[in-house]
Design a protein that fits this description.
Two copies of one chain form a homodimer.
Chain A (H helix, E strand, L loop, with lengths): L13 H14 L8 E2 L2 H8 L3 H13 L3 E4 L3 E4 L3 E9 L2 H7 L4 E12 L2 H7 L6 E11 L2 E10 L17 H8 L4 E9 L3 H7 L7 E10 L2 E10 L5 E7 L1
Antiparallel strand pairs in A: 1-3, 2-3, 5-6, 6-7, 7-10, 8-9, 9-10
Helix pairs in contact in A: 1-3, 2-3
Chain A binds a DNA duplex (19 and 19 nucleotides) through helix 3.
Chain lengths: 242, 242
Amino acid sequence: MPALSKLKPTPLPAYEQVKAFVKAQITLGHWRPGNPVPSEAALQQQFGVSRMTINRAVKELAVEGVVTRVQGSGTVVAQLHRISSTLALRDIHEEVLERGHAHTVRVMQLDTVRADKALASTFKLRVGAPVFHSLLLHFENGVAIQVEDRYVNPASAPDYLGADFDTVTPTRYLLEHAPLTEASYSIEACLPSAQEAKFLGIARSEPCLVMTRCTVSGPHVASWVRLVYPGMRYSFGGKFQL
Amino acid sequence: MPALSKLKPTPLPAYEQVKAFVKAQITLGHWRPGNPVPSEAALQQQFGVSRMTINRAVKELAVEGVVTRVQGSGTVVAQLHRISSTLALRDIHEEVLERGHAHTVRVMQLDTVRADKALASTFKLRVGAPVFHSLLLHFENGVAIQVEDRYVNPASAPDYLGADFDTVTPTRYLLEHAPLTEASYSIEACLPSAQEAKFLGIARSEPCLVMTRCTVSGPHVASWVRLVYPGMRYSFGGKFQL
DNA sequence: CAGTGGTCTAGACCACCGA
DNA sequence: CGGTGGTCTAGACCACTGG
């Protein structure tokens, strides 16, 4: 079998070379969105490697959204280009430390509330059922950077109110006590409430990035949180390479 | 070999069953972040399938960010949980049509400008070099939903100014004429400029989501665009499942 | 050194699609 | 029906890690 350049041990794995080849054809404009990609058999001939190797290469491209595969039909260059941003659901404590700054917390509220209609709906509980509530203010080098307004399902973390949030952030506490199975979020632009503006030390007219996030742990909706970032000092970013 | 339940043809592929098993252990809290995951050999014994199948299962979990693998060392449950939002870099035209609404465009400006220092820097051109510029307003059912302020590298799309943006949006035009190799973006909250507010028909005090995006095509930085979405009517969202 | 994961092969059977 | 991709096997060699 006429293998790939095996003079050097393995400059690049065979499947990576196949991926690179396919991407190059697309990047160079030789294969355009909607055009067919050669079948696995054809690529197998061309590269002189086993079908499993070709399959791996093309399968990974499909996962990355570069091509679309249909069983029985074939493979085509994908119409949509994806930007796969991968935001980590991370602990703000570690995030700030990584920037070499000091992270501190002030607990503004910590109590149990009765679920109103909206809360009951998100947590799938009865109206009036108890739900834990915490309101924290996070500082980076003494500057307020995030308001964390969080509701927690007692079924997921019965001892939540007893946690020491000066040591362990709610995010970390919940990750440890209510293993994550699912999460959804949305990012929007809002004006802060009077309280939020006061906490963050900004004007009510200064726009904020607000991330609301809902996490599921096993059978329960574990937590719903609203994270408010001040002004134009914060942004969510991402990068993507074909 | 004591295979998996083969009575029914294949309820679920073997590798999916392995993935489900591992995820279940994590979800149930039996295996916690940092804990080791059984070796491929061990799982092979346990499930009675070939190592390739186990390898595929665990490798995919690694890609998804559920576990971390280190060659020669082993596999552990990942410390970080990832939210992999996959924003499509899509054509707003198709996006609006998919919602069953009508999409229209108004071209506000279309011209050539001389690169200032900032533009020259992003495009890696000389100061004073010509750069195409377009300013479009997008409507959904007649309501303004996006201001698209775009700069284009003439080297990537020499005929950009001659395109008919009533038919083909700049996004689509560029995807077709300058195949995408790389893109980066950031999302922030801003107040609109006086002009943007006027175009969108909103107050200057209403916050906007602003996505700035830079695309690379082959050797050139192809385009830099600022997309302004009005008020709190727009959000970027994502979901993630363990 | 033994154990781990990373890659690869040369077959195989199947489900699906389009003609 | 032939061609496609989806899955799987039972081996193999390698690079890397740890003790």
